[in-house]
Design brief:
The chain is an alpha/beta fold and 742 residues long. Among the domains are: 216 residues, Glycoside hydrolase family 3 C-terminal domain (Rossmann fold), CATH 3.40.50.1700; 118 residues, Immunoglobulins (Immunoglobulin-like, Sandwich). 27% of the residues lie in helices and 19% in strands. The strands form seven sheets. A six-stranded mixed beta sheet has the order 1-2-3-4-6-9. Helix 13 packs across helix 17 and helix 15 packs parallel to helix 16. It is globular, with a radius of gyration of 26 Å. It binds beta-D-glucopyranose. The site of beta-D-glucopyranose (BGC) has 7 residues, from loops.
């Protein structure tokens, strides 16, 4: 269909070129002349469009496409999920995959894994690679990345986001955006804003103060727009201030388009628009996915019933809607089309290339977090083990299928057990036991895993068989955690608790009793409770790591890669150690969700109330050791408006080369509004050979010291004393130094 309509567009293009006003020198109409400034082209195209054509480009014509203006040679716009790989082609009106044979892709690690690399170069590599795949698949808009803040560990979509800290998420999102867009493919940053849970996602209304909104929930979106230059953004499903986020005056008109000067397109989440008048006035530009009568049955005429389709046209014809507002929306959509579908300068992209597989593996391995490692359980030394027991469903389960709109049709997915087998070869024996039964679903939207995970053994029998194997092995690698089934890590529902499902706690405890040489590898996009934390010597968080998951895990298990990932969110001991839950401010029943914890999200809460986390934000071990010197400040006192420079020496004092993420947190010693104990304001990932020392320098810019005064509605830099903390995690501060802003 797309090829067909592109051909039509080309024909129309030659017609348009011949008949409309032209640039004097080239005989090409102004809007088609890529030499002309973008805004001139947009105005020219706008001036040629009829009212009907203008409305036509503001809503979908299929599940993932919107019509262009064929008469003018302006092509369709094609969107795709996102954010971890390019979604399989679906039928015109349905979610079901269309059964193409050339739409398999490389699955990149989930965004939690990317955030856990704490490495902006990894984000750039990710953006470049996925952008090339999107381009090759002829997509114009990639629905991602997601940067909603990790407010509660129950949120089913946390795996699609970049953790709990606005600074980390802001730094990590920018290179992704920039590199994707170099391919002539727009990102669509989602889900703007305050979509921090899946329960009642279409119905809950967030109540949050402006300080938390501006300091915690918005910065990553702002960075994507202002620094990344994102060309589109997706409105979220939830309400805020009594209006749906997809047509929300405060979020879209005042903040996004007003304060941030966003010149791109606000796209509704699929089915996120609910009202024509609000959609017209409150900032929505392009409507997708609304459920209209007939659409669910596959009829193709439902799109005219969209809020920004015939109902909009009717208001325009009647005069109750103005063409001025319409033109503003059309300009934005035209800008997007010129930047993407009509950009003839873009590269061709590539699909399933060796480079993309390498990128997926590198990013995955760098995101893996070594949470605990006693008695040198890891890395496993293949010269001293004969038998490796691999236990747990997640060792064999395909994880790229499921979880909602981010589900993929990967050309290949290497499971943990396959990765281990490939790395071990004939150096040792690997024996597998399932241990527990989790999710046996083998299909999502028509994409099948090809796995039959049915099981007839009882829970007790499965545990007994696993224990028997563990007793006989030199080392045990347990793979568990969550999966992409409903109420796990999955769009559309939240988890019911922090605990591991499927009796895994019982199983892990039983195995730990018979073998000390046990490493528990958690595959998840969320924190989980670990009541067995003291019974187990090694614990690893390996996330959903995409096509190369198994190879990346094996790289870390056997020490080919020295782990360097750090947690992008806090692992609490129990649910009530998290602010939202401590204050009972996450409610499955109440549709008004009040963010009572305000600024105190993640480690900010743990710091304020001295709550000992299970594993802290920023935590992650290495197979080597890093020694920190003394933090030094170039000038102990600076004038307001000047940069502050802080430096520290870090030495690899162990025996293996490795990478460390050196983290800078800042505390405002006194301020007229209460501030968190400390906040992340810098990080650097450095590589050190054994014995090597590097000086890490941080430049603290004035903006990084500001807080948002909600009464004045402005960012404030207050003079006075500040402390810079430098450490290996939010709980592991190695040195501090004070400075004063005069
Ligand atoms: C999701 C979006 C997704 C869209 C299209 C929605 O249900 O919330 O994240 O991009 O569907 O698949």
């Amino acid at each position: 269909m797309k090829i067909f309509s592109k051909t039509l567009c080309l024909l129309a293009l030659s017609y348009a070129a011949a008949s409309c006003c032209q640039t004097s020198q080239t005989n090409v109409p102004v809007y088609l002349d890529e030499e002309q400034p973008l805004e001139i082209r947009v105005e020219d195209a706008l001036s040629r469009m009829t009212l009907e054509e203008k409305v036509k480009i503001l809503h979908a014509q299929s599940k993932f496409s919107s019509a262009g203006v064929p008469r003018l040679g302006i092509p369709e716009l094609w969107a795709t999920d996102g954010p971890h790989g390019i979604r399989a082609e679906v039928f015109w009106d349905e979610w079901e995959q269309a059964g193409w044979t050339n739409d398999s892709i490389v699955a990149f690690p989930a965004l939690t894994a990317l955030a856990a690399t704490w490495n902006e170069d990894m984000s750039a590599l990710y953006g470049k690679s996925i952008g090339e795949e999107a381009r090759f698949r002829e997509k114009d808009v990639l629905l991602g990345p997601g940067v909603n803040i990790y407010r509660t560990p129950l949120n089913g979509r946390n795996f699609e986001y970049m953790g709990e800290d606005p600074y980390l998420a802001s730094k990590m999102v920018v290179p992704y955006v920039q590199e994707v867009q170099k391919n002539g493919v727009a990102v669509c940053v989602k889900h703007y804003a305050l979509n921090n849970q899946e329960t009642n996602r279409h119905f809950y209304d967030v109540v949050v103060d402006d300080r938390a909104l501006y300091e915690i929930y918005l910065p990553a979106f702002k960075a994507a727009v202002r620094e990344g230059g994102a060309w589109s953004i997706m409105g979220a499903y939830n309400y805020y201030k009594g209006q749906h986020a997809c047509h929300n005056e405060y979020l879209l008109n005042d903040i996004l388009k007003g304060e941030w000067g966003f010149d791109g397109v606000v796209i509704s989440d699929w089915g996120g628009a609910h009202d024509t008048d609000e959609a017209i006035t409150n900032g929505l530009d392009l409507e997708f996915g609304t459920w209209t009568d007939g659409l669910t049955m596959g009829a193709t005429n439902g799109y005219d019933a969209y809020y920004l389709a015939d109902p909009y046209l009717k208001r325009l014809r009647e005069g109750s809607a103005t063409e001025e507002v319409l033109n503003e929306k059309v300009r934005r959509v035209l800008r997007l089309i010129f930047r993407t579908a009509m950009n003839t300068d873009k590269p061709f992209g590539s699909l399933c290339s060796p480079e993309h597989y390498d990128a997926a593996r590198t990013i995955a391995a760098e995101g893996i977090v070594l949470l605990k490692n006693e008695n040198d359980v890891l890395p496993v030394d293949l010269s001293s083990v004969k038998k490796i027991a691999v236990i747990g469903e997640n060792a064999v389960k395909i994880m790229t299928v499921g979880g909602g709109s981010s589900s993929l049709k990967a050309q290949h997915e290497c499971t943990p057990v396959e990765g281990l087998l490939a790395a071990v070869g004939d150096k040792a024996e690997i024996v597998y036991e399932r241990g527990y039964v989790g999710d046996v679903t083998d299909i999502f939207d028509g994409v099948a895993t090809g796995q039959d995970l049915s099981e007839s053994r009882s829970e007790d029998q499965l545990i007994a068989d696993a224990v028997k194997l563990a007793e006989s092995a030199d080392v045990v690698l347990f793979f568990g955690g969550l999966n992409k089934a409903a109420c796990q890590d999955c769009e559309g529902s939240d988890r019911f608790g922090l605990e591991l499902p499927y009796a895994q706690d019982k199983l892990i405890k039983a195995i730990s009793k018979v073998n000390d040489n046990l490493a528990v590898i958690i595959i998840s996009g969320n924190a989980v409770a670990m009541p067995w934390v003291n019974d187990v010597n090694a614990i690893v968080e390996a996330w959903y790591s995409g096509s190369q998951a198994g190879h990346a895990i094996a790289d870390v298990i056997f020490g080919k890669v020295n782990p360097s990932g750090k947690l992008p969110f806090t692992f609490p001991v129990k649910l009530t150690d998290n602010g939202a839950h401590a204050l009972d401010a996450y409610d499955r029943e109440d549709l008004s969700v009040e963010y009572k914890e305000g600024l105190y999200v993640g480690y900010r809460w743990a710091d304020k109330f001295d709550v000992e986390p299970l594993f802290a934000f920023g935590h992650g071990l290495s197979y080597t050791d890093f020694t920190y010197g003394e933090a030094k400040c170039a000038k102990a006192s600076v004038k307001a408006g000047a940069d502050v420079k802080v430096a520290i020496d870090v030495t690899n004092s162990g025996k293996m080369a490795g990478k460390e993420v050196v983290q800078l947190y800042i505390r405002d010693e006194e301020s007229y509004l209460e501030r968190p104990v400390k906040e992340l304001k810098g990080f650097r990932k450095i590589y050190l050979e054994p014995g090597e020392t590097k000086t890490v320098e941080f430049v603290i810019e004035p903006d990084m010291l500001k807080f948002f005064d909600d009464a004045k509605h402005e960012w404030v830099l207050e003079k006075g004393k500040f402390t810079a903390y430098i450490g290996a995690s939010s709980k592991d501060i190695r040195s501090e130094v004070s400075f004063e802003v005069r």
